[in-house]
Amino acid sequence: KALKKDDFGKAQAAIDIAGQIDPKNKALRKLLKKLPSGGPMVKIAGGALARGTSKEVVPAAIKLCKKTKAKGEGCSAKTFSAEQPESIIGMRAFLIDRFEVTNAAYSACVKAKKCSKARYSSTCGNEDKSIRDGKSPVVCVTWTDASAFCKWADKRLPSEAEWSTSARGTLKKGAQTAIYPWGTEFKSVWTNW
To answer: Which position among 66, 70, 82, 186 has the lowest Cβ density within 10 Å, counted as fewest Cβ atoms?
Structure first.
């Protein structure tokens, strides 16, 4: 029986618990094959999301840009003009994968002839072969490749607003919960910079 979208989160939560109790359960593995591919999902609560850049944070953003010597960035107020003015939008609750898509999961889509192979090159992936490990997140794929994977997995790519909400959270009492997925301080080693 096909699961409805609303049932997926409940089923995934039950599977997570059952898998912790009895990881060798044959019935559980059979059920996992019936669920959409791509890993466990979590529900992100709706709420208010701040989008864009406020005038107050532009000086700090310029300073950070110059400090980190961001390649290709102008490090001026003009750089951030397209992100202004900051606005508040409403977000509905949604589901998003808890983990990034792994090479192993993406390879299954390639084997099913629904996805193109990752495009490793001198600028993407050739310098570190360990990123091709089955448990590592897939890299060197295009938006079109990612969208094809989502369609194959009976999912969809998150919108820009959903991505921001899942990474930063929604507004609480007039303050953003985080500027970055890990908090409020920039850490260049934690970014795809």
So the answer is: 82
Task: Count the Cβ atoms, other than its own, within 10 Å of residue 11.
Answer: 16
Question: Both tokens of residue 120?
Answer: 């490793």
Residue 164 CB neighbours (<10 A): 19
Task: State the Cα–Cα distance between residues 33 and 109, nearest whole angstrom.
Answer: 14
> Which residues, at least 6 apart from 132, have a Cβ–Cβ distance to it below 8 Å?
103, 120, 125
pLDDT in tens, 84-134: 888 888 888 888 888 889 899 999 999 999 999 988 877 776 767 777 888
pTM above 0.70, yes or no: no
Q: Whats the size of the chain, residue-wise?
A: 193
Cα dihedral 25, 26, 31, 37 sign: positive
